[in-house]
Every structure is written in C-alpha cells, then in structure tokens.
Amino acid sequence: MGMSEKGVEIQLHWIFVMIAGALILAFFITIATKQRALSQEKLQWTLATSVESVLTSALLSKGAAQPIPIPSQGLDFSCSKTCDCAMNIGGARRPFGLMQIFGPSRLNKGSALVWSIPWNIPYRVSNFLILVSPETKYFFVYNPSDSQSKALLSQIERSLPPPLIRNGITVAKIDYKAVESKDVNQLVAEDYSHYRFVFLNTPPSPLDRSFRKESADAIVITKDSIEFYSKSKSSFIQEGLATYAGLPSILAAIFSDSQNRYSCGIRSALNRLSYISSLYVDRSRSLFSDRCDYTTINRLLSEQSSLAGQLSRDLELSRVNRLVGLQQALERENRRLVEQSCPEMF
Q1: Where are the domains of the chain?
Q2: What is the pTM of this model?
Q3: Which residue would you say has higher pLDDT here, 11 or 116?
C-alpha cells in the first residue's frame, strides 16, 4: 500500500512540474510576443516618420521629382468621406491633412516616384505632391482630330518628369503611352498590377478582352470637368464627377486612384488658398497710398478668399470657373500696379 501511495505522489509531483513548466513557458512566450509586437510597432513608427520626412522634403522642392523607397510592409494612404486623411505603415498612422498628396491608395515595396507640382492662383498657394506607382501603366487617350484633346495631351506630356536615373539605372519613372482613341480596343494587357486610362476630351472606349480580369479604371477630362470611371469586364461605368482649376489639378486627378482622394486634396488646397488670399488682403491695405490705388486688387483678393472658402466645402462648377476668372483678373491688376511703379502684390 505504501508503494502505491508513493507512486501516486511521484505522478502528482511530475504533473505539478509539467503544469508549472507550461505556465512558466507560456509566461516567457507571452513576454517575447509582446516584446516582438512592441519592436514591430516601434519599427513601423520609425519608418512612418522617415517616409513623412521624405514627403516633407519633396514638398519643399517645387517642380522636382525623386524616388521614394517603400517599406517592405507597404505604404497606404486613405481619406474618409469627411477628408480625415492619413498615411499608414502597418499600425502606424500619420495624418497628412495639411499636405496635398495625390496617388494610389497603396504602394507596395520597392521604389516609387514622388513629384512636387506648384499650384499658383496666380501666386504660390501650395505644392501638390504626386506619388506614382511603378506597378501602374497609364494610357493617355486622345483624338487627333480634336484640337482640345491634342492640346491637353501636349500640356500633360510636357509637364511629366523624365525617368530618374542613378548610376545608369532607372530607379523610378512614369510608365505611360499616348494612344489615339480609335486604337484603344487594340491595346493588350501587359504585366502590370493596375491600368489607368485617361481620356482627353474623348468618351471612354471598350477594352480588349485581355483586360476583363485586370485591375483598371479611367477618367475623362473635358473642358470643365473630370469624370471618374470604374471598370466592369471590358467596359467603363461612370462613378463620379469633379471639377478642376488649372493643369496641376488635372495632373492630381490623373494620378489619384479615387474621386474622394482627389477631392479631399483639392479642398485642402482651396482652404489654404482662402487663408493666404486673406493675408494678401491685409498686405494690399498696408501698401495703399495716394499714388498707388490697391482698391481693385483688394476687392478681387477678398472675393477670392471668400470663394475659396466656399469651394473647400463644396466643389461647385460655376464657382470653380469664377475662381479661374479671378486668377486672370488678379494677374492683370498686379501687372497694372507694376507698370505704375507701385509695389507688386505677388
């Protein structure tokens, strides 16, 4: 009987040892997992800070293009319906509401192109930052019989940055091709993750069957508006309509993968325009003298500030057209002041 009890004690002892060992092992595994998660989170925040620094540097370099390394986790951009915009690397989220960033919602690992475009109306308001994925192919579709279509193509092509070459190697570029509208259905899908068709004052055309299962979308740029389209099999379906003010906003639309991202960036820029024009209103008052009359330019700037504020909340077409008219009037009035040997406004 004593031997039996001793055997039971030994079994219970080993059961206790196993349970205690399992608990200790689980404790250390939990600690290691948490430590790894914290290290990963710290790395993501470090990467997000580095990417943000690169974007800020690019923002200050007007008209310049440069490569931007993408972390292995990828780089995501998003804007809510209320234009709460942020950049994400894993769990690290960095808002960028004050920067006007246009591009794809996601950039995978590798090297993308970041490009800064000044937006002047007529004075410098902001620099648009455009991100271009190497995994996207752009087709600029034009009608050679349409003067506006050809003019748009010429303006866009002249504005695009050349390929970025380092030590004889192309490190970043915009993959695009100009295509006549009659030849769209002859295009065949290649080895790209996404295709963007940009129809220049010409209606969207059906695609070849090779695009049926490919990721693709389109925009149509007309005299007054930009139409956004999604793809259904080999055809395009209109999803939305937006407006633009000048070539920089056209380029922003070309490289934005959604109407919402585009509209949020433009509204942010218009909000900044409203603020800066109000500063110029104050400057015009300080420059007023018996010899130099700034009444007209003061009125134009006041209207521009008010109009830009309204447009930052509602991108209404007729108001955008008026904004372009104000830009031209401000340029004329500023020239008149210079010709009268008065201090220029901008």
Answers
A1: 268-339
A2: 0.83
A3: 116
